[in-house]
Amino acid sequence: MRPASFSFKGERGTQFPMFHELQRFVWWLGQGQNSTVVLVLITFWYTFLTHRIMKASTRQAVASFQPALLVCGLSKRDGKPTATYLYVKNLGTQPVVFLDFTVRCSPHGRSSILDRQIRMDDTILSGGDNITLDYDFSDQLSTVQVSSDMCGYHALIVVSDLGRQVVLQYDYFQVSGITMCRLGMPMRVRWKYASRPWRWRYYRFKHWLRIAERLAEWENADAGRRRDNK
Predict the structure, then answer these.
(1) Secondary structure of the chain in HEC code, one letter for each residue
(2) Nearest-angstrom CA–CA distance, 57 and 221
(3) Are 129 and 146 in contact (CB under 8 A)?
(4) What is the pTM of this model?
């Protein structure tokens, strides 16, 4: 079945092909299978737009609790001249969680010295609060006979929000005083927290093994004393 053929004419009798093509398109939409295809395309476009709106809303919500830190170095204090202090302040209103704090010392002409301070893991810093972190490589530098003035220091601080949805890395370079911020969690830190439950189970199993061995020793000693008394 073909559509009825008619055309519109202008004042001088000229035909307008546009109206004829529009009539053909309307007739094409009237067919059952074609209308289904158009409905599928409209549904796909609507889903695509909804997905983009949802992603924009998610980014806006994530940005509201994204950690914001101020990281800077402090002068060495009296009484402990070999220690270096790092000043960290939470500029946001939401608390942040310290996931990792690592300091790398690079002596001139020597291999780098790494200090992973696990005592800062899972430490919570409230909004507006500050904390002073210290690190000291005097013992290691005295071993390699290098002065602390001939070293470069790089501090890596990995923090996140309480829900651990947004993870930021703060790199502080003491010599230049530059602080850089990056999104994402380092693979080393990701593996550390992924393997933590298994390490807990391992140490718990090892602890129970030691208790079982100690109980077995006590039972053997008690059995020996009983035989001696007999």
Answers:
(1) CCCCCCCCECCCCCECHHHHHHHHHHHHHCCHHHHHHHHHHHHHHHHHHHHHHHHHHHHHHHHHCCCCEEEEEECCCCCCCCCEEEEEEECCCCCEEEEEEEEEEEECCCCCEEEECHHHCCEEECCCCEEEEEECCHHHHHHHCCCHHHEEEEEEEEEECCCCCCEEEEEEECCCCEEEEEECCCHHHHHHHHHHHHHHHHHHHHHHHHHHHHHHHHHHHHHHHHHHHC
(2) 69
(3) no
(4) 0.64
Measure Cα distances from 98 to 46, 65, 164 in Å.
Answer: 41, 15, 10
User: Digits of tens for pLDDT over the chain (230 positions)?
Assistant: 444 444 444 455 445 566 666 666 666 666 666 667 777 778 888 898 888 888 887 777 766 778 888 888 776 655 555 567 888 899 888 889 999 999 888 888 788 888 888 888 888 998 888 888 888 787 888 888 887 778 888 889 999 988 888 889 999 988 788 888 888 888 988 898 889 889 889 989 989 998 988 888 888 887 777 777 76
Which class is 69-190 in CATH?
mainly beta
Q: Which residues are 84's β-sheet partners?
A: 135
The length of the chain in residues reads 230
The sign one gets for the Cα dihedral 179, 185, 191, 197 is: positive
In the block, residue with structure tokens 């709106």 = 53
